[in-house]
Amino acid sequence: MRKLEFTQTHQNYFGTLCQARRVARFGGMLSVLSLLLLMAFSNRARAQCALACNDQVNISLPGTADDCELEVTVDMVLEDPTSCNLPMEVQLFDLQGFPLPGSPFVNETHIGKSYIFSVTEIQSGNNCWGTILVEDKLGPDMFNCGNVTVPCLVDYLPTTDGGDIPAPDIDDCSNILSISYEDNITLGNCNTTYVAIVDRDWTAIDQLGNTSTCTQHIFVERVSLADYTPVCPANVIIECDGGNPDTSPDSTGYPTIEIDSVVYNVVPGANNFCEIAASYSDEVFDLCGGGQKILRTWTIYDWCLPTNPQNGNPFTCIQVIKIEDTTPPAITCPAPIVYPTSAVNCLATLDLPAATVTDDCSGISVKVLTPFGL
User: Fold this and answer.
1) pTM for the whole thing?
2) Confidence tier at 220 by pLDDT (50, 70, 90)
3) How far apart are the first and last CA of the chain?
4) Into which CATH architecture does domain 57-135 fall?
5) What's CA 177's distance to the chain center, in Å?
6) How far is CA 12 from CA 9, 16, 336, in A?
């Protein structure tokens, strides 16, 4: 059996021509021919790997600021990515031809701008190019917009407006331009589980005009004096502050009701949904020294229960608010003064300036003591 041994001499369309040198054995000839066919088809595949790039490709980023980055891939910009299965690379450049930092990734800083892209087949160096426009077409991402169940003692306005209901979290590649909401309220009655159901429709708009919406359902539960007993606010002592101490309930306290280990204030007129009404009246007694004692009577009434004070409807309690003046007057003495005496009898007639005396709350009396008496 003869063997053919091949030595490469020069290149042609298929890659190599081989000069055969006859040897004694022929057993490896089939293997060599197979190798030649493989090389020929491989080179032909490379020669037929034509690249056609799309032009003016719009690249839209994800909608969240936490994930506002996108890789520009071959599939996005090549007209037929399946026409060539060899390794390829995407590179980005600005319109002046300078490489784009972070290429081939784009993010929110590239929104609204055009760039040049190049797709290169790494093995042959063949390439094509086009342009992309980076866009943000998605509305803001709104989450934590779920249902909320709260007692009617809370302020049902969102936290963004000073209330107690959490507002949804909002994220976006572009800056948020506005956030608004609209409520659709269904009122209950004394026989329903909920005194109100609030369907709150939220709308968020980013600076590009992209809009997203979500609906938050707020279930407002009834609070009944049949189930809960209010606690009267504690007695307080207030220092007389400039003769105008703050005795409002915001300063001195409201009655409270504890529900599921959470303490809620019972505030007059805070929530029109509640069938519980709260009010108070004050009796004021003057004390010596500019002080006062206020007897504040709180009344809490449940409109859904029969009026029966023995059964706690209405609930009443008295809070004692005492105003005291424990700060002494402030005295500012005049500066030392030197008066000349008469050369005849070493005496002088003089007027002593009065000290400056102030007090926040009480009336004051001033006595001037000298070595010669008052």
Assistant:
1) 0.64
2) very high
3) 147
4) Sandwich (2.60)
5) 14
6) 10, 6, 118
